[in-house]
Inverse folding.
């Protein structure tokens, strides 16, 4: 029996650790489980293939078994696979230990529980007082902070019941406030995701259905709301009502409170804002590009795009494209230099080539742009669409006789049709763009006809560029 180790729970979890964390885990396992020779041998072998674990051949259980147990008889593949449950348990224990011993809020709350259980009153009250302030005031807030604070307030109240004739109901009042904030934030995050999916689904239909407000969403008094649920309330209104003015208002509110919001929550809000702006651009609202670039600059200044687990290739590509479209090439170059390292190793070459191609196009270095694009191996459907869109622009402007523009466009249309069900909005916008580029290239239609086609297209990429090319006919 043989199996790819990449698909196992252990390797999938191990891959989420940084290179330093993987090295630390290996040292921890060697120290704590020194007598477990076979699992340690398997762990040593697997860790040598990190931190990305992309070598399919070596990560086959049969190949691993032959390499690890070269002097052993029997089913070496089974030895490897049978070691994985132990390794998974070691890794779980390691991560829990790190969480409970690194001075985190979780560690402090757990320690407060122990102090209360053991009756160490002075130590408990001192820790509990400072901890609630740390949870909601000193550290960046995310939704689970309210839950932690609630747990701490209930613990305080229960402890006061044991040690005083009159328990302190202030803890219950604070806990009630924590619960309200947690519940409201959770409601609004769910509402945002519902609105986002409905908006995407509506834009793929000819007639958009009315956007319904989730029945469980309460009336909101923004004047008394905590900044985190208030931000999600603004995002919800942006997504559900699609008011362009809300976009800039939400950005301003985020700028005001970003220091107090966790990176995870900030990244989620950024993602919604990016998706909204991208949909507006597909609808021809390219004036959003300048505001979107300002948002990206602000995000870079505040470290939003520095988490490998959150930062995606699509975001990286879009940030570069927007910077180039608004002409901020110096910033685009700096972003490429400083943020490429936050991309997974497997897509760094793709991201670098595409970024350099966009910068080259913006400098009208068209042959260089084409050569860079030809080197890229598309990572996914969306990445392929971005590459093909830029290639169409370059080839149209270069107008080389050796390049068959019509055949290229026709082949692209056939390819896009295969993805029509999965990616309706993007495919529709891309098909409209390709169709109009073909009209421009063939020069069989009048300028007025092409401009009318551009205006009539509900979903379209490169609207301003297409209008400028039509006006040159």
């Amino acid at each position: 029996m043989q199996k790819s180790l990449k698909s196992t729970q252990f390797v999938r979890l191990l891959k989420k650790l940084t290179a330093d964390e993987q090295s630390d885990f290996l040292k921890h396992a060697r120290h704590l489980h020194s007598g477990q020779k076979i699992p340690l041998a398997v762990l040593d072998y697997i860790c040598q293939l990190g931190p990305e674990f992309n070598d399919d051949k070596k990560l086959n259980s049969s190949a691993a078994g032959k390499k690890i147990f070269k002097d052993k008889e029997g089913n070496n593949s089974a030895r490897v696979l049978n070691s994985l449950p132990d390794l998974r348990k070691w890794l779980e224990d390691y991560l829990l230990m790190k969480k409970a011993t690194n001075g985190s809020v979780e560690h402090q709350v757990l320690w407060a529980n122990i102090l209360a259980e053991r009756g160490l009153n002075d130590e408990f009250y001192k820790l509990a007082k400072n901890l609630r302030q740390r949870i909601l005031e000193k550290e960046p807030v995310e939704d689970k902070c309210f839950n932690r604070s609630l747990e701490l307030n209930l613990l305080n109240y229960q402890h006061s019941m044991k040690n005083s004739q009159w328990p302190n109901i202030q803890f219950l009042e604070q806990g009630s406030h924590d619960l309200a904030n947690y519940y409201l934030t959770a409601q609004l995050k769910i509402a945002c995701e519902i609105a986002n999916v409905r908006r995407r689904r509506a834009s793929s239909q000819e007639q958009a259905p009315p956007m319904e407000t989730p029945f469980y969403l309460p009336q909101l008094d923004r004047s008394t709301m905590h900044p985190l649920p208030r931000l999600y309330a603004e995002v919800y209104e942006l997504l559900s009502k699609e008011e362009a003015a809300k976009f800039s208002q939400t950005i301003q509110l985020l700028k005001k409170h970003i220091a107090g919001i966790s990176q995870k929550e900030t990244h989620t809000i950024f993602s919604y804002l990016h998706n909204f702006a991208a949909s507006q651009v597909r609808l021809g609202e390219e004036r959003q590009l300048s505001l979107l670039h300002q948002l990206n600059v602000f995000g870079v200044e505040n470290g939003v795009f520095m988490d490998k687990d959150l930062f995606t290739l699509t975001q990286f590509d879009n940030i570069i494209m927007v910077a180039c479209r608004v002409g901020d090439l110096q910033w685009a170059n700096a972003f490429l230099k400083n943020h490429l390292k936050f991309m997974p190793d497997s897509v760094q070459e793709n991201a670098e080539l595409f970024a350099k191609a966009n910068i080259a196009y913006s400098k009208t270095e068209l042959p260089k742009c084409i050569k860079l694009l030809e080197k890229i191996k598309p990572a996914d459907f969306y990445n392929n669409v971005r590459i093909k869109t830029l290639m169409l622009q370059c080839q149209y402007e270069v107008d080389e006789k050796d390049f068959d523009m019509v055949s290229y466009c026709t082949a692209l249309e056939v390819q896009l049709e295969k993805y029509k069900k999965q990616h309706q909005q993007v495919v529709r916008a891309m098909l409209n763009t390709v169709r109009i580029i073909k009209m421009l290239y063939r020069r069989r239609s009048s300028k007025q006809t092409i401009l009318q086609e551009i205006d009539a297209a509900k979903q379209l990429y490169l609207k301003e560029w297409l209008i400028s090319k039509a006006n040159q006919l």
Q: What stands out?
A: Residues 5-101 form one domain. The two ends are 66 Å apart (CA to CA). The mean pLDDT is 85. The CA atoms of residues 324 and 473 lie 25 Å apart.
